[in-house]
Amino acid sequence: MSAITRIDALDALRASIMILGVFLHGAVAYMHVPLPGLLWPVRDPSSGWVFDLVLWYTHGFRIPLFFLASGFFAALLCDLKGPNAYLVHRLKRIAVPLAVAILVILPPTYYLWGLGLVEQGLVSWREVTRMSFHDQELKDQVLGLAHLWFLHYLLIYCIAYYLIRKFIPSLLRFPKRIRLLEGWWWPLSLVAVTFPLLWLRPEIYTQFDNRWLPDPWELGYHALFFLVGSHLFRVHDQLNRLLRVGYLYILASLVVFAAVILLFRWQLSGDLSSHQTTWAFALATSVYSWLAVWGFLGVCLRAFNHRSMLVRYLSDAAYWIYLVHLPVIVLLQLALEYVQNRGEFSIPPGVGFLISVGFTLAISLLSYQYLVRYGLIGKWLHGAKSKNTGTKTFDGSLLEGSNARTGS
Q: Which position among 13, 219, 321, 362 has the lowest Cβ density within 10 Å, counted as fewest Cβ atoms?
């Protein structure tokens, strides 16, 4: 490909990554073993391991793939608009929604968390109303950025990328021949970088930390994927090479993931840092993560290589869904738990999962369509739209979507 002709596929990728978060948060309440470091307000564990396996598998590639796509579009935007316009664009699309979400979405999320903790007997109503917990560990797990953390990371990466492109662009000058996509094994060569990071700090994968300040290890780990994405833009004409190997990479990632779970089975809720198999766990996790990242990128390029109004719509709505879904899905899970505790029947985990996820998506999409899409919020999230035609008058989604093009 001599020009970027797959932006519609990347729209689909963006929408999938962000909407997938609804399904993952819907599954957390029903995991057989809780995710280490993540204090969830509802616990209705399943007797099986389906929710655990799906969540752990997705956990290894979803956010890395998001940052890779973000880096790709950062390079594209800088080339099209220049560093200064790029920075203004990113501040509008990321910094402003993040600030508003912190003020508007986090407070009710905290109180919903508190309601769940009261039901579990972990805190008192007095602690919840004051948002002050006697248990410091409990306080650290509740009063953080919650799901907004990776928007915070993205803002940091975008500002850092701007500073480099503006003042020291030589740091990002790559040789004319970049071998990233030459041969099936070259994309996996990046395991050499993520492997030592996960060996030294396996908690990057195994644990969730709800905090305001970024964890330096995790920040550096995900920065690698952002950098690779910006690098990938320079060889976008080679992306079609992933079409032939996408499904094979995904199948291989499932095989390697089985080894990850086997290595992790003893300490699924603990710390692997002192375990003698940490190096093998880090290597297997690195390999399966990169296989899944490249695999799902290739599959999206193949499956969504044509313009689709549905994909375009979901891509526009995905940012709003991501921002508002967490308090909605937690409220629904709390309501289901209340019905079970006060009634004389139980709701199977699979049914509870479908109800909470289904209603969350429905509420999010309806609110987007009638309250957000053509209003001020929609303008800040993805650019202004004409209500008659539904087309963008200014393009600018979170990852910069399908209207972006480069010349031949």
A: 362
**Cβ contacts of 274 within 8 Å, gap of 6 or more:** none
- pTM over the 0.85 mark: yes
Tokens 């940490």 sit on residue: 278
**Cα(275)–Cα(255) distance, rounded to whole angstroms?**
22
pLDDT along the chain (408 residues), means of 10: 56 88 95 86 89 94 94 91 94 94 93 86 80 72 86 96 92 66 79 94 88 92 94 84 89 95 69 67 95 94 82 90 96 93 84 96 96 88 68 42 38
Q: Under DSSP, is residue 90 helix (H, G, I), strand (E, B) or coil?
A: helix
Please tell me whether residue 60 adopts helix, strand or coil conformation: coil
Q: What's residue 254's pLDDT?
A: 97
User: Are 58 and 37 in contact, with CB atoms under 8 Å apart?
Assistant: no
Q: How far is CA 238 from CA 2, 61, 202, 281, 287, in A?
A: 9, 21, 33, 32, 22
Does residue 345 lie in a domain region? yes
Triad 15, 17, 21: Cα angle to 5°:
110
| Domain assignment of residue 393, yes or no | no
**Angle between the N-to-C axes of helices 309-342 and 96-104, in degrees from 0 to 180, rounded to the nearest 10:** 20
Residue with tokens 């094994």: 185
- CA torsion sign, 390 to 391 to 394 to 397? positive
Q: Check the CA dihedral 394-63-74-146 and report its sign.
A: positive
Domain span at residue 39? 7-382
Cβ pair 299, 6 in contact under 8 A: no
pLDDT at 267: 56
Query: How far apart are the C-alpha atoms of 162 and 157, rounded to whole Å?
Result: 9
Output the six-digit token pair for 340: 């079970």
Query: What pLDDT score does 263 carry?
Result: 86
Model pLDDT, residue 5: 40
How many whole angstroms separate alpha carbon 244 and alpha carbon 298? 8
How many structural domains compose the chain?
1
Residue 151 maps to a domain: yes
